[in-house]
Amino acid sequence: MKINPGDMEAWTRLADIEIKNKRYGEAIKIYEKVVKSSPRKASIYAQLGYAYGELKKYRQSSLYYEKAIKQGIKDPQVHYNLAYTYDKLGKTKEAMREYEKLASAHPNTESLDHLADYYMKEKRYDSAIKIYRKMTALNPKNASAYSSLGYVYGLKNDIENEIECYKISLKHDAEDDDVYLQLGAAYEKKGMYEDALKAYKGAYELNPASSKAAEKIPALKVKILQQKYRDS
What we know:
This protein is mainly alpha-helical. The chain folds into 3 domains: 1-91, Serine Threonine Protein Phosphatase 5, Tetratricopeptide repeat (Alpha Horseshoe); 107-167, Serine Threonine Protein Phosphatase 5, Tetratricopeptide repeat; 175-232, Serine Threonine Protein Phosphatase 5, Tetratricopeptide repeat. 78% of the residues lie in helices and 0% in strands. The protein is built from 13 helices and no strands. The chain has helices spanning 8-20, 24-37, 42-54, 58-70, 76-88, 92-105, 109-121, 125-138, 143-155, 159-172, 177-189, 193-206, 211-231. The protein starts with 7 loop residues before the first helix and ends with a helix.
C-alpha cells in the first residue's frame, strides 16, 4: 500500500482483517477511506454497518445498512442486521418491515421468531399463526414453534387445533412440563377431564415442584367423579 496507496482492494483486505481481529474502529477508518473512492460499492457500506453495530453505534450502523440496500446488495443477512439495528433504536415498525421482507424472501428461524413476537404483541393472531406455520415448515421438529402455535390457537378459542399442536410439540420434546400443563388446560376447556388429568400428571412427573399441576390433579379427580355422577 505504500507503493500504491490508491489500491482500494488492498485497503479493503486490510479492513477485513481488522474486522476479523475485532478492531472495529480501525476497520471503520479504512472502509470510510475506501467508500470515498468507491461510493457505489454496496459491500463496503454493509461492512461499515456491521462495524458500527459491533461498537453499538446503531444510528450510524442503520444508515450504512440502508445505503448498502440502496446500492443493491442482495445479502439477506444485511436485511436481518438492519432489522436488528432498528430494534435496538426502538424503531419497531421499521424493524418489522425488514423482518417481513425476510420472511417472504429468505425465511429463517430468527427473523420469523421476531416477527411472530411482534404480531403477538399487536394481537394479530392470524398473522402470528401463519408465521409459526412457516417455522414448523422450516423445521418440522421444532417443538417450541408447535407449542407457540397451540397457544395462539388457544387465544382464538380454537381448542381442537390448540390440542393438536401441543400433542405434536410433546412428540418432539416430551420433557416440557409447561406444554403438558397447557395441554391439560386445553382438554379441561373441552370437558375432556380424563385426558386433562393425564396431561397434568405428566407435568407433575416431570416437575414435582409444579404447584399448578399439584393443584389440578385432585381438582380433576373431583370433576371426573362429578361427571360420572351426572352421566349415571
